[in-house]
Specification:
Layout (H helix, E strand, L loop, with lengths): L1 E5 L9 H7 L15 H14 L2 H14 L7 H9 L5 E8 L9 H19 L4 E8 L6 H4 L1 E4 L2 E4 L16 H12 L3 H14 L5 H13 L5 E4 L3 H17 L1 H13 L14 E5 L2 E8 L2 E4 L5 E2 L1 H10 L4 E3 L4 H8 L2 E6 L1 H7 L3 H6 L6 E4 L3 E5 H9 L4 H4 L3 H12 L6 H19 L4 H32 L1 H14 L12 H8 L2 H9 L7 E6 L1
Helix pairs in contact: 3-10, 7-8, 8-9, 8-22, 10-12, 18-21, 19-20, 20-21
């Protein structure tokens, strides 16, 4: 295995906001607390230790013991759950939807990133304990995003009716999905292991939440991963003061409105808050709570409450109240002794909207760490890149740009259109000085002629490039095929491929190899070359 790191900036797949964050640009500094480096973690640890309540630790441990009672828990995960009772134990958290069979590859990467970061922090802060946590998005209701995974360019889809929190979904019907999947992957030993993993997860558990917990535990339990389901009465009771404040004062909306105004000066906005950022969770539905004329309505239902009524409902049935994307981060930070949230660029973009809200409710804002991104390249692909003289930086170029660059490099015709354009500009520069001494109409004519001739050179350059691409068709085809194989549909494979494709080839060792390659605090893009 060979590991190479390149700056996130050079891939072209990360937003201006994320690049500015990684570079600690002044334009983004006011929207986060501590930066993800050792100094930042030292400060965060001290801040969280002062405010996190020991009573919350007991409730957290109790809830996790209940959630794990029917799980074949590893000794490492058991130890970590018990360590959460100690005042010197902190969590590193990542979250993910309950995608069918983990969904895209980055599910694996973000969890391994959390595990490795805990190991790094233990080395730097040996008197403390650090527990990796996977927060299952059990209360999410966007079924379309999670009902499939890609296998070798084809979707393996779970067809069922949508409705309500996905974690509560029955696993009925997944036996048909299993039949489709098993017919695709053959009968090698690794294929048998994948079939066993899928069938035990989805055919031997009744809910999508239980199935996902089993799957994640099988893949990462040996590293001590703790999996948490926020759809839990004990945990939501800890959150009721904040839910009450939201219902009565619409605190998140008011805080975010100020932040969004500032952020919009330089960046796009990821999510816009509602007046009330809570859902009401019922049997087969999860709907927004809307307040009109002091009455609280549950959207698309006949349910409605007075102020006193909804506060009583919150007290009696806290699991009926579900935080949306704005309030879920706060829920997480209230119930966990958490130092850092690990997520992709889109996730971190909406977290960066939340700092002022956290300040308002007096909860420490966590460190935000852009998760490890990985591009896996086989030895065969690496050799082809070398023969084609394509560097890793060049691999991520837009395909048209990459092909143009390589065709020009490989051409026998050595001419620089840029030199010719610069020569032309210098000629017209002298002419413009003369024109300025006459009248404006002559100057306009000179500018128009310059533009016309530059456009002419552009057209000639494109025609020459097109002719060279046609003449070098074999090179163009080889580069196109190779880049498409590595970057499916012109995007990062981690957002499209499922781990099963690599598991089929490398088995359980694939997880181990990726784990060895990840350095969370390096803050760079990782390229892993596998034999």
């Amino acid at each position: 295995m060979k590991v190479t790191h390149i700056p996130f900036q050079k891939t072209g797949f990360f937003s201006k906001m994320m690049i500015d964050y990684l570079e600690q640009s002044p334009s983004i500094n006011n929207f986060y607390n501590n930066f993800p480096d050792i100094t930042g973690f030292k400060n965060q640890l001290e801040e969280k230790q002062k405010i996190f309540k020991s009573s919350h630790r007991k409730t957290l441990n109790s809830a996790l013991q209940e959630q794990y009672k029917n799980v074949n828990t590893t000794k490492y995960t058991k130890k970590n759950i018990d360590l959460l009772l100690k005042e010197n134990t902190f969590t590193i958290t990542t979250g993910h939807q309950l995608n069918l069979f983990t969904g895209p590859l980055y599910f694996v990467y973000k969890i391994l990133c959390a595990i490795n970061l805990c190991e790094d922090l233990k080395k730097n802060f040996p008197n403390n304990n650090f527990v990796p946590v996977y927060w299952m998005a059990t209360e999410d209701h966007d079924f379309d995003e999670i009902k499939y995974f890609n296998y070798k360019g084809e979707k393996v889809i779970w067809n069922r009716e949508d409705g309500g929190a996905v974690g509560r979904f029955s696993t009925n019907g997944l036996d048909e999905v299993f039949k489709v999947f098993e017919n695709k992957i053959g009968n090698s030993n690794n294929a048998k292991a994948l079939k066993n993993l899928f069938s035990k997860a989805y055919l031997e558990h009744n809910t999508l939440s239980d199935a996902t917990r089993f799957l994640a535990n099988e893949l990462f339990g040996k590293f001590g991963l703790v999996i948490i389901d926020g759809d839990d009465k004990q945990l939501k009771q800890l959150f009721t003061p904040y839910a009450k404040d939201e219902l009565l004062n619409e605190s998140s909306h008011l805080s975010l409105a100020k932040t969004i105004t500032k952020l919009e000066e330089n960046y796009g906005i990821q999510v816009n808050p509602r007046e009330i950022n809570l859902f009401y969770l019922g049997e087969n539905f999860r709907e927004r709570i809307i307040k009109r004329d002091e009455v609280y309505f549950v959207n698309n239902t006949k349910l409605q409450f007075t102020k006193e009524g909804i506060l009583k409902e919150l007290e009696d049935n806290p699991t009926s109240f579900s935080p949306n994307v704005i309030m879920r981060p706060l829920y997480q930070e209230v119930i966990l002794p958490n130092l850092c949230y690990i997520g992709g660029g889109g996730e971190q973009a909406y977290w960066l909207q939340l700092k002022e809200y956290f300040n308002k409710v007096a909860v420490p804002f966590p460190i935000l760490l852009l998760r490890n991104s990985v591009q896996v390249i086989t030895k065969k692909q690496a050799d082809k890149l070398s023969r084609l003289n394509i560097s890793f930086d060049e691999l991520f170029l837009n395909q048209h740009e990459l092909l143009s660059k390589k065709v020009v490099e490989n051409s026998d015709i050595k001419t620089s259109f840029e030199d010719k354009k610069n020569f032309l500009r210098n000629q017209f520069k002298e002419l413009k000085e003369v024109a300025k001494q006459t009248d404006v109409t002559f100057l306009n004519a000179v500018n128009a002629q310059e533009k016309k001739q530059l456009n002419g050179l552009d057209k000639l350059e494109k025609r020459l490039l097109k002719a060279e691409k046609h003449r070098q068709k074999d090179l163009v085809d080889r580069i196109t095929k190779l880049q498409n194989d590595i970057l499916p549909n012109g995007g990062l494979e981690e957002r499209q491929r499922n781990f099963s494709e690599y598991y089929l080839q490398y088995g359980a060792e694939f997880i181990e190899l990726i784990k060895k390659s990840l350095q969370p605090l390096k803050l760079e893009f990782t390229i892993v070359e596998l034999d």
